[in-house]
TrEMBL record:
InterPro entries tied to this protein: Phytase-like_dom
Keyword vocabulary terms for this entry: Signal
Pfam families documented for this protein: Phytase-like
Annotated protein name in UniProt: Glycerophosphoryl diester phosphodiesterase
Domain Phytase-like residue range list: 68-356
Signal peptide location: 1-23
Length: 389
């Protein structure tokens, strides 16, 4: 179950940082207003060992780890008390080395005054009622990074979670305790290599190019699931945004084409701004000195396509207060940036996926921390108020 200890005590301190109250714009360009960091070597206390199959350069962290790392944030939802639920992804980069990484939703409380992040608890994802019909890694039906690659998350009004997976790609529905509520929902016509290997079907998507973004419509009727890579036969660099009806529990058949700036890029997250607009992270695979394209776009539905407008260049954020100890220009030079959430009409938060222990975007040879930043925008996003509650 989610641990709630300390949430109420932190609410007062957090209110000024995550208020949804609108305010007049105070900046001329996107500006850093908050910075907090969770050290790379942060683990779930008293949990299980992990990383026994990890190989390669682990940047000073010997494997296996004594506990489960709190890492790899690949999706985020805000809580009314000022904390956030974040999704840890599949583990250590692939199916073969992640069988002892337990899939979890972590609950975090950033303190931008101190620049730190408190971990308030979390829940582990399970399938106690055997909705998954193929063999799982563990007999106790606790889900691992060898079973699913979870990369995106949305929460419904009843507290349950829908999660997007890359191995299917599947949509997975969990209750507020992390228990799977139904069979994984496949995307018609799209098969990842991991599913192809299990079923004998022909793969139509590349590995790790499944559901990277999952947006809930403001009216709560639909989910919009965005693939990270192009489907076989589609134009290079064109991604499918797929509409899923929560009332019927099935895809509607409607989809929209999102154009990457070039086919070598990928998306990191997609959330709703209103019924027709989405906030989408687009990135290259570089880190540190090779990081170039790390951007946030506003994408709007127009017929069967999405037209996009640059909102924030994450490699060029004004930092007049030198937050985080950085200079007047703040950069977010991480290989994978997979979390964005709207805090109020003028402010967003962005988190990186640190791919623990592998990514080294801040300094060569040093495993990246998980960083949580807030950015003030020069103009209101004009979001649907229902996504802020």
């Amino acid at each position: 179950m989610l641990a709630g200890a300390g949430v109420l005590a932190l609410t007062v301190a957090l209110t000024g940082n995550v208020s949804v109250a609108s305010a007049p714009p105070r900046v001329a360009v996107p500006t850093l207003t908050g910075f907090a960091s969770l050290p790379a070597g942060t683990f779930v206390p008293g949990s299980e060992p992990s990383g026994s199959q990890v190989t390669g350069n682990t940047n000073g962290f010997p494997v296996p780890f004594a506990d489960q790392p709190i890492q790899g944030f690949s999706g985020i939802v805000a809580n009314p008390d000022g904390s956030f639920d974040v999704l840890s992804d599949n583990g250590y980069g692939n199916q073969a080395n992640s069988a002892d990484f337990l899939l979890r939703i972590q609950r975090l409380a950033p303190s931008f005054r101190s620049g730190t992040i408190d971990v308030l608890g979390g829940l582990t994802l399970t399938d106690p009622d055997a909705y998954v019909t193929w063999p799982l890694t563990r007999a106790d039906r606790v889900l691992t990074g060898a079973d699913f690659d979870v990369e995106s998350i949305a929460r419904l009004a009843d507290g349950s979670y829908w999660i997007g997976d890359e191995f299917g790609p599947y949509l997975l529905h969990f209750d507020r305790a992390g228990r799977l509520l139904g069979a994984p929902v496949p995307l018609p016509g799209v098969v990842a290599p991991e599913t192809a290997a299990r079923t004998g079907a022909t793969a139509t998507a590349r590995s790790s190019k499944g559901f990277e973004g999952l947006a809930k419509s403001p009216d709560g009727r639909y989910l919009y699931a965005l693939l990270e890579g192009a489907v076989t036969g589609d134009p290079a660099g064109q991604l499918r945004l797929n509409e899923f009806d929560l009332r019927t529990g099935s895809y509607t058949g409607k989809r929209y084409a999102y154009p990457l700036e070039n086919p070598d890029l990928a998306i990191g997250d997609a959330i709703a701004i209103d019924q027709n607009r989405f906030l989408i992270i687009e990135r290259d695979g570089g880190q540190g000195p090779t990081a170039v394209v790390k951007r946030l776009y506003v994408a709007e539905r127009r017929g069967g396509s999405l037209t996009k407008t640059l909102l924030v260049d994450l490699m060029n954020i004004a930092n007049p207060r030198n937050l985080g100890g950085f200079g007047p220009t703040f950069t977010f030079p991480f290989q994978t940036i997979e979390d964005v959430v709207i805090l109020d009409p003028h402010r967003i938060a962005v988190l990186n996926d640190n791919n623990f222990p592998f990514s080294t975007g801040r300094a060569a040879g040093v495993a990246d921390n998980n960083e949580f930043i807030t950015i003030e925008l020069p103009a209101s996003l004009r979001p649907d108020r229902r996504i802020l509650t």
